[in-house]
Task: structure prediction
Amino acid sequence: MNLARLLAARAEANNPVRAGIIGAGKFGSMFLAQARLTTGLHILGIADLDVARAAENCQHVGWSHEQISAASLDAAMQSGATHIGDDAMALISHPGLEVLIDATGDPRIGIRHCLAAIANGKHIIMVNVEADVVAGPLLARKAEQAGVVYSLAWGDQPALIAEHVDWARACGFKVICAGKGTRYHPDYHQLTPDTVSDVLTQYLEIDPGSINLKMFNSFLDGTKSGIEMTAVCNATGLTPQADGLSFPAATRFELADVCNPGAILSREGTTEVVSSLYRDGTDVPNHLAMGTFVVIEGETDYARQCFREYNMLPDASGQYAALYRPTHMIGLELGISVASAALRNEATGAPNGFRSDVVATAKRNLKKGEMLDGEGGFMVWGKQVPADKSLAMGGLPLGLAGGVPLTRDITEGELLTWTDAVIDENDPAVIIRREMEAAFGRVNAAE
Result:
């Protein structure tokens, strides 16, 4: 690793990497907390619809008033301070910007920002994994054609898992499974923003009034796991299991025993998410709720011997072993992606195919005419589905399942299709999704 040395060289040359971020919420604030301390990195601008809140968040994580006092992006270039404004497109198009970070969490907005960044010759760090799973393979291809980097966000679990997979393959190991931990129970699929705080306060010391409950609900109702494992599949060549994720309970020391084809997996070369709860609701000891992992196969007797000798967390048979990372630091680690894109022209994970999708799934019985409320809401959760299955059934992408009315009654647990909602075919996000399906899979065009 030599990113710190390369950043230091840019600082010494008085030419720091200049980045901008759209969205100064929790993830953005975590990144900004470390960005101001990173030699060779200059945050040129922050774009947020609530400028006052963005400034408050900056000061909360340690920024001085002087550091965020630049009256314009041009002034920020001259002084080395940072400009906070509400014009994302002005930030994207500024000639001094090298790397754009989209941390909005809105797939439609993220796609728009990404396309604008590519058109303006900027590298794009897609914290917005919701946008990535709607159209990431096509966005990454467009970025490559334009000579810029499209990257998953280091610190978020998909990029870390992609690194695990790359490590394993570069060492000559067959990847059996890769994934993460979470807190999961089957009942959580029915959680809503009104009920999720009852679960959150069981294991987090957090004031429900201080957080976005709709966002946190997506972490628990199964949606975020489906989104993140889809991003992993599309970036690594792993493919989903036939029925998606099963969320088995496992300690960090049982990963190789649980996540192998002789146990719960329907196939090798796939993704899974392990739960920190047993199905009876009791806690799994030594769980991996915030971590990531990869399970590999020892294809020779000697490799399996080494698994045992060096306590490489093998399964009972000794055929498989696991490597895990106990936690992820979210935005605090995002600078790795920024530096990698700017200094190495290299992504920290990027989609290169359409292998997995996230399909809107009914949380309850839904009625014709009801308006879908999208990720983390009261009506649908996102289920990981193999891309070919999603295309064959015409599955409605979760990222486009907000603000559209239903055309028929839907039964609880049913996967929604494009025809189940009134879709605006002129919506730019719908257009780019259709283009992605045509480029990477069987065309699912509207009649």
Observations:
- Residues 443-447 have pLDDT under 50 and may be disordered.
- Residues 129-146 form the longest helix (18 residues).
- The chain has three domains: 3-154, 158-184+222-327, 356-440.
- The CA atoms of residues 178 and 294 lie 4 Å apart.
